[in-house]
Amino acid sequence: MARDIRQIIERFLETSQDPVLYEPGEDWLPITRENLVLESRAGGLQLQAWNERRNLVRGVTAIEQQGRGKLVLKVARFGKVQGTLELIDRQRAVRENVPLRAGRLGFREQFRRFLRRQFTGYKVAELTTEPDLEHSLSPAYPRALLRQGNSLQPGRAAWAAIGAAPEAGHPEGVLTFGLIWLDYLRAREASLGVRGLTVEGLILYLPAGHEKTTCLRLLFLDPGAAQYRAYVYGEQGLEERIDLGDYGNLDTHLEPYRRRTTATPLAGKPGAETPEVETIDRADGEQSFRVHGLEFARTAGSEVLFGIQTKRRASAGIAAWANQLSRLRSPDATDRRNPLYLRNPEAWLESQVRKHIQEIDASLAPEPVYGQVPAFAADGRGVLDLLAIDHRGRLAVVELKASEDVHLPLQALDYWMRVQWHLERGEFQSNGYFPGHELTRELPRLLLVSPALDFHSSNERVLRYFSRHIPVERIGVGLDWRKELKVIYRSLSGQPKRLPHVNSSLPAR
Predict the structure, then answer these.
(1) What is the mean pLDDT of residues 126-154?
(2) Counting beta carbons within 10 angstroms of the beta carbon of residue 300, is it exposed (0 to 12), middle (13 to 18) or buried (19 or more)?
(3) What is the pTM of this model?
(4) CATH topology of domain 2-96
């Protein structure tokens, strides 16, 4: 099936004059032969596309729709949420965008009816789907301001509201843009002084079956910073309020960490004579061989599999290929538009942080450092994760993003809450992680690491609404991080205290 999907995508790209990739709520990403890769992964198909500002990775599960100048892909995102990506021939972009806009306007009116039914004492003072790039407000989600009564009398209560359409390809993105909208309205009303409204909180409308991620995130926001109400609606258009207490179960699993007990097959290690080659131990007991984060070989039992897009049994010449990869994927490379140089910048940043983690924070132990733990962290998150420990035994979750991403804070929260759950139950050490270390039960630190100029301007606005219990630190590194990892600034927020209890849908071991 993955092969059939791949062939359809490749045929579409071959016949397109000016293809772009579109994900609801995001900007179009122009596609060329050099910046899109289709790769088989565990029986499925992974799509990766990038430019200088953005890196997108999604698992493609099906072809949802084919038409002239347009191909709609069904993709798997974090938490098994299904979404869509659209490949569009920009020569027909104007015609193809008409149904998108019409769909947004249709849901906008449905959203208006939701608000009027549920908030009879309030007036819908504003309702729009227009983009506002200056304030990072997306056209993919209708947003509204509810004002108590019909009067502008000072002291009247107001609410921010936002909705995710049933066909939204990224329904979990609604909370990011909802918090940005709430913060924008509060700042705007505060500028009016005594004439302004008091915006008490945020109302969210979510399509049935896509509400769990958002509801889990709401449990870890600060109730003192804002109030939150969430509603779910079904195919018949009827909505009901959500009890957040029903959404405290985490879908998470921690795979036992297995150490390789046999020597790496073949003489030595692939590319061992090349200094840039990194050997990374995987949780399944195998080893991954990489150049600045890009895997070119890995062990599979008694064999070594070689290749970047498709792995095959290793043969003679692997060392020469590793040398060539090291030359092309080098901070001093002369061709910085080469696909191997540009590919997966988060993996390159991860490589640098692994090697220089004490530059990120001097209190962190240089090893062990684990990647993508717990196992829920799917490729579709677009963020790479490291789990480290400091010299006192406190865990640190390190979230890495090499390009601007408005969703970074909440994506990091998804990972952090799962690490905290497993820590609370003592599962890391019982599953073989951090041998020789005694883990404390302090809440893990959350470190967001990105090039200093590539933190999205709205990340700090979203972090204002995080629970004060979560110790979050933004760490900006220099723009020349590929050559030298140097911290330019740090921004700390949150005080470690006890968190509300959250259950997991998996039994404790």
Answers:
(1) 82
(2) middle
(3) 0.80
(4) Protein Yojf; Chain: A; (2.70.180)
